[in-house]
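Cast an eye over this sequence plus tokens and walk me through the fold:

***
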Amino acid sequence: MKATRRTGLVLAPVKRTAGRMKSEITRARILQAAKAAIAVGLAWTIAPHLPGVADNYPYYAPLGAIVSMYPTLMGSMKNALQTIGSLVVAIVLAGAVIVLSQPNVFTMSLAVGVGALIAATGWFGANREYIPVTVLFVLIIGGPDADNYSLGYLVQVSLGIAVGLLVNLLIFPALSNDAVDRQLTNYRVVLADHLSEVAQALAESWPPERDGWASRKDALISVSGEVRAAVILAEDSSKANPRARRHRRDVGADFEDLAALERVTFHVRDLTEVLAGAVWGTPIRVELRSELRPSLSLALNAVSTLLRDWDSEATQRAAYSAAADAVASLMNELDENRDSAPATSIGAATAIAIDVTRILAALNSRAEEPAERD
């Protein structure tokens, strides 16, 4: 029961990170739903007033509006082009059936099969299923009036797509810059908390009573994936977005920061496994001499402080210098004990020390040249 409570406390920052991201996603979805409702209403209002045969099929305009509703402008435009492309391909296939033969069970099945093969190429993204479905619509619903039906279908869907794109452009087009800052900060806090927890375990009586850090390492991967998704969304949301001109952001620097933190995560997980082996003998049984633990604890605490001071130019260099000194002191102590200690004991401490050194290397460029943020 105690172990469960400790694990819950250790995972609290991870849960807070997930909670903040879910809250942001919820707000974005509410806004997107409202925009979709507006776009559908406008498309349905305009559709009956189109000239020619298109006004016979007004119900396809709202469908086009819904299809064009994506969280980002670039995603909306890409989806719109793929939708129109899939409809054109489907109409061509259905037209070939009408021109070259006549609709029957065999020719309809053949056209749908060819459409499914084209859809399977992935050229039309998530809208690939429109190809075989539209083939059936044109041949079954259009029937003898397939040409007018095809034209009306395509025009009305295109109208809905145009309305949807316009609504997406004019009403708060999504820009996810702020979310990236929060997610990267949360990621660093989670890593720093984990290292602090490991450092405290090393400073306590042996074996340590705290054991939450051992299970926390797996949650780091989940946090990493969520942050990467946030950075990718921010990059996509800035494309073709007029708001991005006023809120410029170096997304390339965000990816560099994320890559550095992902490397840090790899080494944090590795040193955690080594320490778990020293405590419980799994996954590999190793020894860790008591006289080496204080230096290891100091080094991990120093790196934890560096992660917390990542965004502060005033303290970042000092934190990096302190972490480098702590690691250098640890290495010197390992060298002094190399001849008098068993290989397994020195090996465990050395493995942790190397992981800490690699963490510093991953953060080094960021510490020397802090990325600018608007």
